[in-house]
Amino acid sequence: MTLPAHLNRRFFLQTSAAGFATAAATGLPASAANLQPVTFQLSWLHSVQFGGSYIAQRKGYWEEAGLDVSLSQGGPNAPVEPPVVSGTALAGISAADYTAAAVAQGAPFKIILVAMQKNPFAIASLSENPVNVPGALVGKRIGMAVANTPVLQALCTLNDIDIDAIEIVPTQYDPAPLVSGQVDCLLCWETDLPVAMAVNGVDATTMLMADHGYALHSQTYIATEDAIANRRSELVSLLRGEVQGWNDYFADTDAAAALTLEMFPDAGLNLEAQQLQAARQVPLMTSELTEANGFGWWTDETVAANIETLALLGRDVSPDLWDRSLLEEVHG
To answer: The pTM is what?
Structure first.
């Protein structure tokens, strides 16, 4: 998953959406010599999280646009930003808070596409004792990494809740503390721990933080100012293939899950988990904005909401962190 480093994701279950992939990207055979080779840096281990990219590669959408795209796997020891800032990768997948932190340290990044219209952070609880509104957190024990306290604090601030009324229990990124009753809820992604619990027959409820004011763009595509200025046509072609791939993904998420397992048979992925994750991603990645304007879209209003949330996380950014000009070319 694309997660800020402070989330401290663990390899929690083989049936999870994250899996245990270590192989390099696979897909189409070597392209013709006249295609421009580029690397696209993924933010995490191979899974259906990147299903639209796999479709773009397998169906040849990038080849049609003149590119030979290699998908470089991310992971806990493969951060996105270094290969993008060095030019080794043309673009990468990050998140608004990650990018803001890098820019604060001098990285010349711009956000050029927003894949997740809603942030996937969620509070997961057992359905027999649900936490389905922020106020229900009061008096509860929440399992999370202590380093994630700013995220919880932001949710509390947005909803006028005293964080001291919530007991923070340090846990690993695993559903076990919730299932065993050690905690009442977990801070996690909507698309991973809840999926792992569902696959194992646990009836869980999730409260999406984005539905309660936590506006933070995730699975955002980044490129450097230099790449935007000097490799613009390649970036536009890359994004165009992505749009085509994700549109196919939304039309048949089960096919995207099956393709993911076909392309990465040694990744330890579980088909049912991948199918559930693929379906759960759709409402996070689509919105009235994308229906009206196309995949990856955003507006000045959504940027303003992001800036407010980033401020609560201690990040001061300006609207020019987002550059929609390439996406406007893609969508005409």
So the answer is: 0.89
